[in-house]
Design brief:
binds S-adenosylmethionine; 8 helices; alpha/beta; 233 residues
């Protein structure tokens, strides 16, 4: 049973897909897609043909370059990339296939539908990189960094696991910090300014980050820890 409501506001289709993209969507995507019909909580470790140590989740993976990089660098990790925009998903699955990656699964739909199905404590790292900023005030409720999504991530992520969030939109950064710092499940304790100004080596750039840099925007990289409830003061 799927109880979460699909809530997609951005575009799902872009330019018509050409040969590589079309083949990716028609032949590869069905093989990699996470099934959403499970009646019991879904243990994501079971989605992968080869044993994986833990499972990481990327929300809004865009053209998939971050996801593909992480999956290639961490073959013992199972990686789930969620992206409803079909052209982005086509790039991701084509690149994963070309690189022979066995440890990647995808969902081309609203991440909320997956979050509610995953078993508690089953996601060891999560990424929300350059989410859609929805700059108009009347659209703020569409922002994916919100209390309900954090509640779900808090349920799914074990103590000490990492949530990585990035944006280059100052207004959204203020929003994120307010929502994240108020949330009891996540702790953001940077040691120095470089912790949020400098992207770590194991965190590759993304397409939207590059576009922002070219437009003169600066990115902020937040690395949060899933805290133990008793840590919450
Ligand atoms: C601004 S793009 C950033 C893409 C990529 N992370 C990057 O940095 O290049 C935000 C992405 O989030 C996706 N997105 C929006 N709502 C989503 C949802 N409910 N579930 C999953 N992805 C979503 C959009 O389709 C879009 O591709």
């Amino acid at each position: 049973m799927i109880a979460a409501k699909r809530e997609l506001h951005g575009r799902r289709v872009g330019r018509p897909l050409r040969h590589r993209g079309l083949q990716a969507v028609q032949e590869l995507l069905p093989r990699l897609r996470v099934p959403l019909t499970a009646s019991a909580p879904l243990d994501p470790l079971t989605l992968f043909d080869h044993p994986v140590r833990e499972v990481w989740l990327e929300i809004g993976s865009g053209d998939g370059m971050h996801a593909v990089w992480q999956a290639a660098q961490n073959p013992d990790i199972g990686y789930i990339a969620v992206e409803p925009f079909v052209n982005g998903m086509a790039s991701l699955v084509a690149a994963a296939f070309e690189q022979g990656l066995q440890n990647i699964r995808v969902l081309d739909d609203d991440v909320r539908l997956l979050l509610e199905q995953l078993a508690p404590g089953s996601i060891d790292r999560a990424f929300v990189l350059f989410p859609d900023p929805w700059p108009k005030r009347r659209h703020w409720r569409r922002r994916i960094v919100n209390t309900q999504v954090l509640d779900q991530l808090g349920r799914l992520m074990p103590q000490g696991s990492e949530l990585r969030v990035a944006t280059d939109v100052q207004d959204y950064l203020v929003w994120m910090l307010r929502v994240l710092r108020r949330h009891p499940d996540f702790d953001w304790s940077p040691a120095c300014a470089d912790d949020w100004r400098v992207r770590p080596d194991d965190w590759p750039g993304t397409r939207f980050e590059t576009k922002g840099l070219e437009a003169g925007r600066h990115s902020t990289y937040l690395s949060l820890q899933r805290r133990h409830m008793s840590d919450f003061a």
